[in-house]
Write a structure and sequence with these properties.
Length: 141
């Protein structure tokens, strides 16, 4: 049975559980007159109410890949000549979470925290690739 689209998934990390999901969205940047695609990854500490969600945003733009159909796959984010991740992959989500935590995001603080995903991408992609290599390329880290 396929998973429902946009349904939250569980992720356990360092003794804590998070619910996470990713969504594709479209928005019109101020004054641009055009529509810009973005991917939004949300991680919510559990149990509910124990802390505020982390929202990692990957806005499309020059030199950036944000999944919007062929040839990129759903959930893909990356740099045209650089790092990339798939936000449907638990190991990739865990790598982004680890970088956000290392840079000071506190899951016990209430209220939403918004982070520019591009600032986390290269470090998270490197950590994810290293985990994949350590696991022999099997699984998703």
């Amino acid at each position: 049975m396929p998973r429902r689209e946009n349904a939250s998934r569980r992720l356990a990390a360092d003794g804590r559980t998070y619910l996470w999901n990713q969504r594709h969205r479209h928005r019109v940047p101020d004054g641009s007159g055009g529509v810009r695609c973005s991917q939004l990854l949300t991680l919510s500490p559990q149990p509910s109410g124990s802390g505020g969600p982390l929202r990692i945003v990957f806005d499309g733009g020059p030199g950036r890949i944000v999944a919007d159909g062929f040839p990129s796959g759903s959930g893909d984010v990356g740099l045209v000549h650089g790092a990339h991740l798939n936000l449907h992959t638990p190991g990739a989500v865990r790598a982004l979470l680890d970088v956000a935590l290392a840079r000071g995001w506190d899951p016990d603080v209430r209220g939403e925290a918004w982070v520019d995903g591009w600032s986390l991408l290269e470090e998270a992609a490197a950590a994810y690739a290293e985990r994949q290599a350590d696991a022999g390329g099997d699984g998703d880290g």
